Amino acid sequence: MREVFLANRVRRLADELGVAIMAHNYQIPAIQDLADLVGDSLVLAMGGPRLAQRTVLFCGVSFMAETVKVLAPEKRVLHPVPDAMCPMAGMVDPVILEGLRKESPGAPIVAYVNTTAETKAASDICCTSANAVEIVRGLPEKRVIFVPDRNLGAYVQRMVPEKEVVTYPGYCHVHDNITPGHVAALRRAHPGVEVLAHPECRPEVIDVSDHVYSTEGMIRHARDSPSGEFIVLTERELAYRLTAVTGKRAYAPDAVCPNMKKITLASMLRVLTEDGPTVELDPDLIVRARRPIERMLAAGR
Ligand code: SF4
Does residue 171 contact residue 162 with C-beta atoms inside 8 Å? Predict the structure, then answer.
């Protein structure tokens, strides 16, 4: 009851103030339901410049809010909980990154979009979980440095054996904690249902899955498939999103990103009422962080 009351207040206030609400696929259902745009980090970042509203309320972790600002610097990006940080993005140490560059002279740094603006600025090209394989395959260099997710890097190496992928030792604890045992239990509970794994899962989990997709890829696959049920190995809220978009059923392990869940309806109401905090980035950092994203987009993959 309180949730419905809060959700209505947030929506009404956002409309009165002319604020667009963006929510990541891992936000709670009540936030997904009231958002103007729901998607993965790239869908949200690409959607920013296209919004008519000058102000955006961003519901997701901080690097995602930063990426919206990087691609739409003219927008005001309200972020309700600035310390909702992605631990994986926070694992990148510039000294380790510099060390990897020195060890592999000439090797480009491919940065997953799940990185801070600083890491993007220190990289040569960005990628998403949907296009990482194609981005790496399309680079002229044989050796590449992949940052920060060792699991996504290992998946890219598996799919592009002709390259040498030097992986940074980062990981997403939400996906890394999913085990083959969880997959077996989900298969037992839902016999015959296809298993779709996110590439941030460990290689041994990929081994026991049927397909590997980004979260948006999972939704597309479900929409186009004749099947009516899916097991999705990713954060549990994606199951709600998949059903909302496709009308089909989805089952996820009990994988929760606590930082995504720091964004609440109450915090959204507060940020609207107080008109802050907003994401502030140095203009020079915006220019440098934008370059590898634009190179990815120019690669058309
Ligand atoms: S799910 Fe993983 S990658 Fe996404 S924000 Fe949470 S910790 Fe970071």
Answer: no
